[in-house]
Write a structure and sequence with these properties.
heterodimer, A: 111 residues, mainly beta, six-stranded mixed beta sheet, 9 strands, globular, B: seven-stranded mixed beta sheet, 0% helix
Amino acid sequence: QSALTQPPSASGSPGQSVTLSCSGTSSDVGGHDYVAWYQQHPGKAPKLIIYEVTKRPSGVPDRFSGSKSANTASLTVSGLQAEDEADYYCTSYAGRETRWVFGGGTKLTVL
Amino acid sequence: QVHLEESGGGLVKPGGSLRLSCAASGFPFSDSYMSWLRQAPGKGLEWVSYTSSSGSAKYYADSVKGRFTISRDNAKNSLYLQMNSLRSEDTAVYYCARGDYIAVTAWGQGTLVSVSS
């Protein structure tokens, strides 16, 4: 049972937008602005695509955007492309005791 | 070019020990927080441990606290994870990573640890 809740799957057609959710609590997502998102293709190491809720590392397309409302963080992928098909994981800082929590991941399928 | 390369994984019996190593290059290692994360076969990501740039602060997930020890040698640009009292549920690919809960900006390719009798 992951600390953060992500839907196991999502899908969209090329060119469409899809939003992935990440639900936590006031102790993690809602209480801190340290939400990050990682993309992982099969057999590969994860890649950082969003950090501190909304920031994009250099090299990550602006088709990827992050946001947060209360205890839920979201990752929006606009203009879906075939290479966006991957697993997406959200993480959050969770305070001095728990420190770091992860979601179970969402498998994004590009139809 | 940032590069992280793990070594030391393998098959070990329950209750056994392993020491993972990570060789880092291409970035200021001694200025970087470093982490170990893992991913069980077919499962999601889980953080294991992370340490401050100097190594003075170390944090562990509850699932490994008291059994695993993270350490680093900044002179050798190396990160380590000593794993004792291994359990079947520790079976996973272990990733060495640059960063912590704020952002993990680089990952190694991972090393597989299998705990089985």
